[in-house]
Amino acid sequence: MNILNDDKFQEVISSGKPVLLDVYTQWCPPCKILGPILENLEEEYSDKVDFYKMDLDQNPITGNTFGIDRIPTVMLFVNGEVKSFFVGLKEVEDIKSWINKNI
Amino acid sequence: MNEEIEKLKKEYGDYAKENGFNLNPNEKILEGVLNGLIARKENFGERYCPCRKMTGTKKEDKRIICPCVYHKEEIERDGHCFCNLFTR
Question: Which label site among A11, A23, A38, B72 has the fewest CB atoms less than 10 Å from its CB?
Answer without folding.
Answer: A11
